[in-house]
Amino acid sequence: MNQAVAGIALGILSLHFWPQIPDYIWFVTALMIGGVVSYFLRLRMLIWVVFGTLVAKIGATFYADAVRLIPIERENITIVGEVSSLLNQNIPTSKFDFTLSAIGQHEISYWNPLRVRLEWLRAVEMKQGERWQLEG
Question: For the whole model, what pTM was predicted?
Answer without folding.
Answer: 0.49
